[in-house]
């Protein structure tokens, strides 16, 4: 078997291996090829710095990396790792990383990062053996917004991304797919909420599927009234929402998501490995 870059791979071959590798996964994966083309474009996937294990030119395992500069580091974000069922137990992911890390270093990458479902104990052990360490705990939610208090004394304003002062909105609180670098490449609508003429909160949402990429109050993150107003505004745009990877350290945000009846669907770790 041989490890090499995915730069020349046929997309249909990659997707065939990807979908077989994720069959029966902890969460149901979309099967539409166009979904992955768009998602990986937004994440800034670079197949030249993504890698596969091949046996007689057949792809049997892969690591798909998005590449971007985040907070002063050039990061290879692993947006998908998989091995065909019949080839598992052969240390393929470790072998791919053994090949990949020197190549990534040569291209100026200083960190590898990934997300892994907490119940996926086998994958976590593999990543830890490679050298990855847990850096964040995430919770994912979806469902209908259920509010006990209806607020109407606010102004909901649709804006564009240039309206926000991104220097004041901490992107480190968000995961790779929810940070502005990724979101700005996607099909999102941007909103701000004003109370008494003052901007109080904001949110960024995909109007087609209710995916909430970013949302926050701008004053006191534990202020229940601000969270109520914010979700009253979100509900005007979409009754049903999906929220991935909320950092567990954001106590006010987590508390309110639980309060409005959303379902906690899955929990994840963010893990990192420094390339020296």
UniProtKB/TrEMBL annotation:
* Chain coiled-coil ranges: none
Protein keywords: Acyltransferase, Transferase
Q: Does the keyword Acyltransferase apply?
A: yes
* PROSITE patterns in the cross-refs: GNAT (PS51186)
Q: Which SUPFAM superfamilies match?
A: Acyl-CoA N-acyltransferases (Nat) (SSF55729)
InterPro entries with a match to the protein in the record = Acyl_CoA_acyltransferase, GNAT_dom, YpeA/RimI_acetyltransf
Give all residue intervals belonging to the N-acetyltransferase domain: 1-161
Which residue ranges does UniProt annotate as crossing the membrane? none
Q: Per the record's keyword annotation, is Kinase included, yes or no?
A: no
Top-rank lineage group of the source organism: Bacteria
Protein's name in the database:
GNAT family N-acetyltransferase
Q: Which organism is it from?
A: Jejuia spongiicola
């Amino acid at each position: 078997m041989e490890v090499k870059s995915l730069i020349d791979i046929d997309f249909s071959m990659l997707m065939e291996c990807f979908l077989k590798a994720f069959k029966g996964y902890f969460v149901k994966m979309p099967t539409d090829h166009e979904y992955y083309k768009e998602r990986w474009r937004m994440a800034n996937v670079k197949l030249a710095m993504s890698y596969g294990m091949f046996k007689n030119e057949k792809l049997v395992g892969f690591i798909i990396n998005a590449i971007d500069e985040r907070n002063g580091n050039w990061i290879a974000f692993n947006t998908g790792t998989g091995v065909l069922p019949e080839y598992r137990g052969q240390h393929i992911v470790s072998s791919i990383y053994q090949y990949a890390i020197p190549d990534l270093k040569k291209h100026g990458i200083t960190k590898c990062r990934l997300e892994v479902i907490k119940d996926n104990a086998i994958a976590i052990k593999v990543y830890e053996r490679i050298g990855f360490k847990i850096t964040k705990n995430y919770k994912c939610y979806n469902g209908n917004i259920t509010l006990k208090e209806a607020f109407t004394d606010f102004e909901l304003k649709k804006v564009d991304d240039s309206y926000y002062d991104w220097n004041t909105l901490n992107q480190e609180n968000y995961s790779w797919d929810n940070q502005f670098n990724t979101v700005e490449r996607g099909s999102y609508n941007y909103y701000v909420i004003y109370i008494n003429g003052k901007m109080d909160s904001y949110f960024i949402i995909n109007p087609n599927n209710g995916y909430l990429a970013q949302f926050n109050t701008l004053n006191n993150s534990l202020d229940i009234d601000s969270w109520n107003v914010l979700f009253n505004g979100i509900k005007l745009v979409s009754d049903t929402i999906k929220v991935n990877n909320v950092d567990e350290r954001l106590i006010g945000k987590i508390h309110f998501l639980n309060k409005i009846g959303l379902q906690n669907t899955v929990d994840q770790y963010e893990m990192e490995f420094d390339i020296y």
